[in-house]
Amino acid sequence: GQRTKLGQELEQVSRQRADAVVQQEILKQLVAAHPIEVPEVLLNEELRRVYLQHKRQENAGQLTEADYYVAPESLRESFGEQALESVRGQLILRHIAAAAEITVDATEVEAEVAALAARTAQNPEALKRTMERNGTMGVLEASLLEAKVFAKIMADMHITDTIVSEDTAVS
Fold first, then answer.
1. What is the tens place of the pLDDT at every residue in 55-103?
2. CA–CA gap between residue 112 and residue 105 (Å, rounded)
3. Total-model pTM
4. Measured between alpha carbons, how far is residue 55 from residues 59, 60, 118, 124 in Å?
5. How remote is the C-alpha of 146 from its chain's centroid?
6. Residues 129, 135, 136, 139: what is their CA dihedral angle, to the nearest 10 degrees?
């Protein structure tokens, strides 16, 4: 009935939250292990993104014209560390995706757009056009790719864990 459905949904949410925590942890370790160079343009883009997100939370979603034209250099002190980690993480995940030949194809993107449209009661085609126009389609593709990379990393880790625990069981 209704109760079990709710229970299942809550279970899924807590599982996703646990996954997100694990993913954050994996990413932290990857970033620490691979202090790769980050192109300035990517860093500045991320600084701006982090800053605008921060301002939005502070001002209940209201942003001024000045917020959009903020000089990235002025944000380094407050948000530099966070932005650098974030960009490094994205680059490392992309690198892993390329090495493992993980890709996201059009049908997967379409399916995700359709699911989004259903959740927000919009027409899928219209939503797709909007997303292509405002650049969120790229964000969606990137997040799908990252999810696949994490799934692979976690599967690999799980295999390693299993081997390790079997080894200890034998001795």
1. 888 888 888 888 888 999 999 999 999 999 999 998 999 999 999 999 9
2. 11
3. 0.69
4. 6, 8, 30, 31
5. 6
6. 140
